[in-house]
Amino acid sequence: MGDESKNSSEEPSQVNQDELILAQQRQIEKEISESIPLVGEMEPISSLNSEYANDEVYLEKIKDLSSKYKHIRRTRPDGNCFFRAYSYAGLERLLDKKDEFNAFYKQAEESKDALVQLGFQQFTVEDFYDIYMEVLKRVGDLTDVDDAKKTLHFLFNEQGYSDYMVVYLRLLTSGQLQKDQDFYSCFIEGDRTVADFCHQEVEPMYKESDHIHIIAACAALNMGVRVVYMDRGNNKSVTEHDFPEGCTPLVHLLYRPGHYDILYP
Amino acid sequence: MAGLSPSERRLQKELMSLMKEPPPGVEVDFDLAEQNLLHWIINMEGAAGTLYEGERFQLQFKFSNKYPFDSPEVTFVGNNIPVHPHIYSNGHICLSILTDDWSPALSVQSVCLSIVSMLSSCKEKQRPPDNAFYVKTCNKNPKKTKWWYHDDSV
């Protein structure tokens, strides 16, 4: 269980290099965090142009993207963006479909016991579950859809709620991976077990999401997503991938290397 | 539990659970934790059949008001620091769940279990190879050390 250790600064000096690196890292994180809301406002797709002023490859792809989508909603790039974007966008869409929202709510209510049965500690899961259900209830109880969406946006920008939503979705994703570990083990590189992978790459905050996280999250919430990839690749159009394959996606996300934002058709 | 912050509420729950169902060989100083929920001392016994059988250790847990999003600061304190390849003589512990792999789903109990297991799997009592240098240069807070995790076997 333990880990062999090695302190990284090899030469004694007045200044501890480790601390400088960590301090700088914290400063960068703080700057990012202060400049970008956890979940931003809806903006036109053309707002992407300013990020790539002289970049023909990207400008061409933004043109293609704008033929398929009208709006984008940015999320904070803090490693939690997939989980935050996916659950926000999913709930936002469900608010338009009362029946589906109710089914989703019922499924969420039953999710805590399933996690505890998988071996998660009751009191650690409970905190996150309680807040998760509180958010679902607060937005679900509002009869006016616009009010509900405003409340959702407000709560997702309150760290005390937003991060709890992220953690709970991370736990549900981890639970899904461990429940179907025979299936997921073939996606994991190296000799890590599915449980190791969950403890190291899924459950901790700020760890970025890969395909395997997305597949498991979609299975856990039973909610399909289309991810639209936009990168420096040679083709002129953006590429799309649905999870699970062949689904009618409820949520649309834009992926640029290292980051997810929400898209609106 | 009105008037408690979310981190205190969570710690209160953990404290109760640790009192009610402590893992074998682990005992929390309840009165101390009651006085200040952000600072706990945990007494730990070396497990039978391991190199640490019969020894007693003390672990100190310090929590920030961002717990459980922030990991606790965990060190061995007192006059018996276990001699172990991942434990420095100043009580600092090199264990990935205390920094990089911390998750809000972990708890004081799961940290204690990991440390018990780390001690139990030890085959030879010795300090980390860079002990002297580390102890001289490190920050008081082990969370400020940039750890490199190599080996999961001990």
TrEMBL record, chain A:
Catalytic activity: Thiol-dependent hydrolysis of ester, thioester, amide, peptide and isopeptide bonds formed by the C-terminal Gly of ubiquitin (a 76-residue protein attached to proteins as an intracellular targeting signal)
Pfam family, one: Peptidase_C65
Domain OTU: 70-265
GO molecular-function term, one example from the UniProt record: cysteine-type deubiquitinase activity
Site positions per UniProt: Interacts with free ubiquitin: I215, Y229, D231, Y255, Y260
Entry keyword annotation includes NAD: no
Keywords: Hydrolase, Protease, Thiol protease, Ubl conjugation pathway
Enzyme Commission number, as recorded: 3.4.19.12
GO annotation, biological process: protein deubiquitination; proteolysis
Xref: InterPro entries: OTU_dom (IPR003323), Otubain (IPR016615), Papain-like_cys_pep_sf (IPR038765), Peptidase_C65_otubain (IPR019400), Peptidase_C65_otubain_sub1 (IPR042468), Peptidase_C65_otubain_sub2 (IPR042467)
Signal peptide location: none
Transmembrane segments: none
CDD domains: OTUB1
Keyword Aminoacyl-tRNA synthetase applies: no
Active-site residue list: D78, C81, H259
Homology family: Belongs to the peptidase C65 family.
Protein name: Ubiquitin thioesterase
Organism lineage: Eukaryota, Metazoa, Ecdysozoa, Arthropoda, Hexapoda
Gene transcribed to yield this protein: AUGUSTUS-3.0.2_08217
UniProtKB/TrEMBL annotation, chain B:
Catalytic reaction(s) noted: S-ubiquitinyl-[E1 ubiquitin-activating enzyme]-L-cysteine + [E2 ubiquitin-conjugating enzyme]-L-cysteine = [E1 ubiquitin-activating enzyme]-L-cysteine + S-ubiquitinyl-[E2 ubiquitin-conjugating enzyme]-L-cysteine; S-ubiquitinyl-[E1 ubiquitin-activating enzyme]-L-cysteine + [acceptor protein]-N-terminal-amino acid = [E1 ubiquitin-activating enzyme]-L-cysteine + N-terminal-ubiquitinyl-[acceptor protein]
Documented EC number(s): 2.3.2.23, 2.3.2.25
InterPro entries: Ub_conjugating_enzyme (IPR050113), UBC (IPR000608), UBQ-conjugating_enzyme/RWD (IPR016135)
Keywords attached to this entry: Transferase, Ubl conjugation pathway
CDD domains linked to this entry: UBCc_UBE2W
Record GO cellular component, one term: nucleus
GO-annotated biological processes: proteasome-mediated ubiquitin-dependent protein catabolic process; protein polyubiquitination
GO MF entry, a single one: ubiquitin conjugating enzyme activity
Enzyme class, spelled out: transferase
SUPFAM superfamilies: UBC-like
The organism's place on the tree of life at top rank: Eukaryota
Domain UBC core: 6-154
The name this protein goes by in its record: N-terminal E2 ubiquitin-conjugating enzyme
Organism from which the protein derives: Tribolium castaneum (Red flour beetle)
Lineage of producing organism: Eukaryota, Metazoa, Ecdysozoa, Arthropoda, Hexapoda
